[in-house]
Amino acid sequence: MRVIAGTYRSRILKSLDSPALRPTSDRLRETLFNVLGTAVSGTQFVDLFAGTGAVGIEAISRGAIDVLFVENHPPAAKLIRQNLHSLDIRRGATVLAMDVLRALEKLQQLQKKTQFAYDYIFLDPPYAAAEEYQRIMKFLSTAPFVSPDTIVIAEHTRKFELAEEFSSLERVRVLKQGDAVLSFYRRRLKHTDD
Questions:
Q1: How far is residue 145's CA from residue 184's CA, in Å, rounded to a whole number?
Q2: Model pTM greater than 0.85?
Q3: Strands 93-96 and 66-70, bridge-based pairing
Q4: Which has the closest alpha carbon to 66: 32, 95, 28?
Q5: Which one in 12, 15, 71, 183 has a CA-CA gap of 20 to 30 Å to 48?
Q6: What pLDDT, in 10s, does the model give residues 108-119?
Q7: Please, what is the average pLDDT of the chain?
Q8: What is the pLDDT of residues 57-86, one digit of tens each?
Q9: Is the CB of residue 24 less than 8 Å from the CB of residue 96?
């Protein structure tokens, strides 16, 4: 596994030989970041169920200024820190070793004080954990740190179809590659009747 492009291009990332991890493939990461393009530069990015941290590290390599990695599996959270250390990334990266929903609740409390919104939120739960997608997407649909400009991206398997919308979040794009699918969501703007 390697960093595809940017500052850390071609640098190798460590992985765990564990059934608990299914890293986003290099090819799918390349597709994702080709779609996002140069818009990633200068943004705030969240990598939920971060695993090895490859997606968030790719965002840093392409100019994201602040990346939050959330990973509940202790060996994987340790691995993310090791990968960041091996690339000498000392700023703009935070690792939260906790349950994703608890981390999002923590962010919600913090947002009440600082009024921030993330630009990109990427989530890649274990493919078999369908209820995780539902829980997280439902939370994000009302989270104050998700603005109409935030793009929420869910990686899932072709065998599992995500809903077209989760409350205020509506799917705006779907990319399929092999067995993997990337579903892109944005918050629907509220329309008022004249």
A1: 17
A2: yes
A3: parallel
A4: 95
A5: 12
A6: 998 877 878 999
A7: 91
A8: 999 999 999 999 999 999 999 999 999 999
A9: no
| DSSP line for 111-153 | HHHH---EEEEEE---TT-HHHHHHHHHHHHH-TTEEEEEEEE
Give bridge partners of residue 2 from the DSSP assignment: 12
**Contact (Cβ atoms closer than 8 angstroms) between residue 129 and residue 137:** no
Q: Tokens 């989760």 identify what position?
A: 166
Helix orientation angle between 100-114 and 130-142, rounded to the nearest 10 degrees = 10
Number of H helices, E strands in the chain: 5, 8
Asked if residues 17 and 40 have their Cβ atoms less than 8 Å apart, the reply is no
More confident residue, 110 or 20: 110
Do the beta carbons of residue 66 and residue 13 sit within 8 Å? Answer: no
Q: Which residues pair with 94 in a beta bridge?
A: 68
> Tokens in use for 123?
């989530």
Residue ranges with strand state E in the chain:
44-48, 66-70, 93-96, 118-123, 146-157, 165-166, 169-177, 180-187
